[in-house]
TrEMBL record:
UniProt-listed PROSITE patterns: HTH_TETR_2
DNA-binding region: 31-50
Native species: Streptomyces neyagawaensis
InterPro entries xrefs: Homeodomain-like_sf, HTH-type_TetR-like_transc_reg, HTH_TetR, Tet_transcr_reg_TetR-rel_C_sf, TetR_SbtR-like_C
Pfam families, A to Z: TetR_C_43, TetR_N
Gene3D superfamilies, per database record: Tetracycline Repressor, domain 2
Protein name: TetR/AcrR family transcriptional regulator
Length: 200
């Protein structure tokens, strides 16, 4: 069980994470000395809370990962295999193009914090289960593997970065790219709706 932080320590922790969030949103690489300066705290204080920039970045990304993991579990309760899979993927790509902390954390091969590993494993497990259901239902190509999902989502996020634009433009572009991808992944019949339509 984690020991609660003292009020002053908790205040410092929140200040550090808030400053780090601003830096990430600015596109500035996290350096603990820079975070300490901007937060008006001693470097030692920052290092006591976060041993590495990676640990701090993962903490910044944690709320987004938590929300995605919760959505993944919720998606598994949806009886429609195509809707649940595509809903999960749209949530994932939205997060990747709107939260600058998520892509580097998601792409990292090692994690600084155990909680990050736990959340990423939850996302991977949910994605694999949703894809397996869609394959079993015959609504998605049988050659699509669970290991393909992360690279495909990262590829869309990278394409959106290249495209650029305002946050609204980026989200719209991500949706268009993902809809186009899903069009190629879905096994369709004349009666099934197209990806991105309201019924999906």
């Amino acid at each position: 069980m984690t020991t609660p932080l003292r009020k002053d320590a908790a205040r410092n922790w929140k200040r550090i994470v808030s400053v780090a969030r601003d830096l990430v949103d600015e596109g500035t690489p996290l350096q603990l000395n820079d975070v300490a300066r901007r937060a008006g705290l001693g470097v030692g204080t920052v290092y006591r809370h976060f041993a590495t920039p990676e640990a701090l970045l993962e903490t910044v990304a944690a709320p987004c990962l938590e929300a995605l993991a919760a959505h993944g579990q919720q998606a598994l309760t949806d009886a429609d295999p195509w809707r649940s899979l595509t809903g999960f993927l749209f949530h994932t790509v939205d997060a990747q193009v709107t939260d600058a902390a998520l892509p580097p954390v998601a792409a990292a091969t090692t994690d600084a914090l155990p909680r990050t590993t736990e959340l990423k494993e939850s996302l991977t497990s949910a994605g694999a289960a949703l894809l397996a259901r869609a394959r079993d239902a015959g609504v998605v190509r049988p050659d699509l593997a669970a290991a393909d999902l992360v690279p495909l989502m990262c590829g869309i996020a990278h394409a959106v970065d290249v495209h650029g634009g305002t946050p609204a433009d980026r989200a719209d572009t991500a949706h268009r790219y993902l809809a186009a991808l899903l069009e190629g992944l879905r096994v369709t019949t004349s009666s099934t709706p197209r990806p991105g339509s309201p019924s999906t």
